[in-house]
Specification:
mainly alpha, extended, Callose synthase 3, variant 2, glucosyltransferase activity
Length: about 140
């Protein structure tokens, strides 16, 4: 994923400004919302086939929606803690979950965990020998 941020200033070094960087990191919340929309659309578009689906396939769709919704909540809550003078919505979220001074690092950790499956997929794609080794190990365990 490539993030392009524009602050309206012609100086390119403003991306390293803390406030601009925080605003650019909100793209992960947008990505989580889009994944939630995709999961809901998957359920809607496969609704007619639900009678012929196996139980674990139905469970997979349900877990996809639930995990996507959980990521939207987790990323939104941890992002609300990054603002020093948050808007009223972020203040409401902070009042629900308490206030913590170490929260910006919590948002960064949430983003790292959120991106870890994509990172693993990219590593396995770039190094097919690792993928083949892991596949052989899994097949060896199942025999």
């Amino acid at each position: 994923m490539i993030i392009v941020a524009w602050n309206g200033n012609r100086d390119l070094s403003t991306i390293f400004n803390g406030n601009v960087f925080k605003k650019a990191l909100s793209v992960f919340i947008t990505a989580a919302i889009l994944k939630l929309g995709q999961a809901i659309l998957d359920v809607i578009l496969s609704w007619k086939a639900q009678r012929s689906m196996l139980m674990y396939v139905k469970l997979g769709y349900i877990l996809k929606v639930v995990s996507s919704a959980a990521w939207v909540i987790v990323l939104s809550v941890t992002y609300a803690y990054t603002w020093e003078n948050p808007p009223s919505f972020a203040q409401t979220i902070q009042s629900w979950f308490g206030s913590n001074k170490h929260s910006p690092s919590m948002f960064i950790m949430a983003v790292i965990v959120y991106l870890s499956p994509n990172t693993l997929a990219a590593i396995l794609f770039m190094f097919p020998l690792i993928r083949i080794f892991l596949r052989d190990q899994i097949i060896g365990l199942s025999c």
